[in-house]
Design brief:
The structure is a homodimer. Chain A is mostly helical. Chain A has one domain: Tetracycline Repressor, domain 2, CATH 1.10.357.10. Chain A binds a DNA duplex through α1 and α3.
DNA sequence: TAAAAAATAATACGATTGTCTTAGAATAGG
DNA sequence: CCTATTCTAAGACAATCGTATTATTTTTTA
């Protein structure tokens, strides 16, 4: 089995991941990925049958990235509440990118719901949201919030998405920090009983 | 001065407005607009020099739409708090579209921050957000919240964007209604003192 | 090391993109 | 009514899109 090939495949996915994030899926062409990797445009067909296949691979890659992030949150704290706080604070580590390009899943999702053809990848994208939602619910369960777990998890995701959208539109780092702070206060208030 | 011409121009803008919302700006071609209006593709150049000019016209149209919406909120209620509630409730009137395509300004804005070339229209888009923000601040001023007006206005916008994003991703009408309800509770709580 | 498989390079394909031109039709004002 | 202007129809334009093919080189396996 070729090991060189899968390395090049990964380079394509990495370049596409970055470009889909910074320019958007539909605004990224094969030529763009070719320029960034040095791999000839026509060669992509060897690894991926269609552009949507590349998208699927990128979404899979982001799934892994977010799983790593959640693992990181689990390692950073032992208690469920502290882990939730770690999750909420994560955008601060990506402040520059967040302010420039928004949320890696939120913005891609917003773009893809408008594509009628890419239904397959759309379901994959909600899978990323579900990954986060399930993890949040897991922490809430440990805090005895199993009843309203689904609602609170969605609320938390909505709050984070909203903060990121506005911070992105106004390129307002201060608002991002304050917004995340407010979410943490809300978390403490909601989960103390 | 020709009156027929400006009518056709308006038809182009209307079709583009709908298509940009339902499919996205970059996923809408001149051919799409041509198909929807029956106006030959090559004819657009008579009214608009570039595609971005059409975008600018669409953004202007949405500015007017949102101004109308704000006027509608002003007519619906006499007090500033009630007017804010009217604004918050507005997405419920567009429930179907919101669930399908998201927010008309939020989603377009998310798409355009990623375009490096369309800076001009990007500033126009923040103008739509500013329109809302200024109106909200205006109501807050009347409620004696002039000090934290900017912060609260951004918070309100963020909350609405977040709710709409999640409701859109999960196509969850119930969450949309509950989320808006929660925003109203938050409004009452924040502005009562 | 020889045969098989995997990977690379380069290019061609039809379709579509946004842009632009031009000839003619409709409509206006004098 | 005639001229000038505004508008419409149709299509050409180069560039780029995603896709596909083929010949060749590299790597793996036996």
């Amino acid at each position: 089995m070729g090991t060189k090939g899968s390395a090049n495949r990964q380079r394509i996915v990495d370049a596409a991941d970055y470009l889909f994030y910074s320019r958007g899926y539909n605004q990224t062409s094969f030529s763009d990925i070719s320029d960034k990797t040095g791999i000839p445009r026509g060669n992509f067909y060897y690894y991926f049958k269609t552009k949507e296949d590349i998208l699927a691979a990128v979404v899979d890659a982001r799934l892994i990235e977010f799983k790593d992030m959640l693992k990181c949150c689990e390692n950073a704290a032992s208690g469920p509440l502290e882990r939730l706080h770690a999750l909420v604070q994560f955008p601060l580590q990506r402040e520059t990118q967040i302010l420039q390009y928004g949320c890696p899943i939120g913005s891609l999702s917003s773009e893809l719901v408008k594509d009628q053809d890419t239904e397959i990848s759309q379901t994959r994208l909600t899978a990323v949201f579900d990954l986060l939602k399930n993890w949040i619910e897991e922490q809430l369960n440990k805090l005895g919030q199993s009843a309203r777990g689904d609602d609170i998890a969605k609320d938390l995701l909505a709050k984070m998405q909203g903060i990121i959208i506005i911070a992105n539109v106004y390129r307002d780092a201060e608002f991002l920090r304050r917004g995340i702070n407010d979410i943490q206060s809300w978390l403490n208030q909601t989960l103390s009983h």
